[in-house]
Amino acid sequence: MRWKLSLAQRIRAGAALAVVFLLIIATNLIDKNHFRIVKENLTTVYEDRLLAKNYLYRISRNIQQKKEILQSAEANNLKELHHAINDSIDILIDKFASTKLTERESIRFTSLQENIRELKKFENAYVSDESIAPEAPISTNSEQYFQAVFQDLDALFKIQLEESSRVISSSNQTIQSSDLITKLEIGALIVIGILIQLLIFLKPSKHEQ
After folding, report:
1. What residues make up the domain containing 125?
2. What is the pLDDT of residues 22-65, one digit of tens each?
3. pTM (two decimals)
């Protein structure tokens, strides 16, 4: 049995299909944007948080090694490792500086750089036997410098944890939004599909025939 659609039915069907087409395009664009956000967040967690935390850990280890050598009052050992340790710290500082820093993180990082420079000045004076009171224990003289550096490192470690948690939370919210939109899209397509059936098979009025 053959049947023909009236002009009105064709217009309705065409309009409904256009709505479906636009809905699919819109949701695809939204999903693409969500995917981009999650991808950027994952990159941020790895490059700007995990790697940054690794740089801080290695800086901390170098500072601790410097402290043990300096406070052992073995100047010969310090002279041997002085340049090697400082070169390693400088490389790690540069790598950390290349990561994406928050405003709070940038302030702490600047403080860390300044305190490391002060520690190096003290260390250089000790190595060259200048400006250090011989009657005072070297550990007493150096402790304030190390304490300042470690305070900055601890603060930066804390920021890494806080920022990682924030980025992961943002990614989870994006994923949840994408899931919700997908469910709404499926529901909308079902409703539109039903409407298309009604519009196509709805008996046209006499003036539409």
Report:
1. 7-203
2. 777 777 777 677 667 666 666 666 666 788 889 999 999 999 98
3. 0.64
Q: Tell me, yes or no, whether 62 lies in a domain.
A: yes
Q: Tell me the residue type at 129.
A: D
Q: Go through the chain and tell me how many residues it has.
A: 209
Q: d(Cα 72, Cα 137) in Å, to the nearest integer?
A: 10
CATH number for 80: 1.20.1330
The verdict on residue 1 lying in a domain is no
Report the alpha-carbon distance of residue 135 to residue 5 in Å, rounded.
106
pLDDT tens sequence across 175-204 = 777 777 777 777 777 777 777 666 666 655
What's the structural domain count of the chain? 1
**C-alpha span between 79 and 12 (Å, rounded):** 87
> Could you tell me if residue 53 is inside a domain?
yes
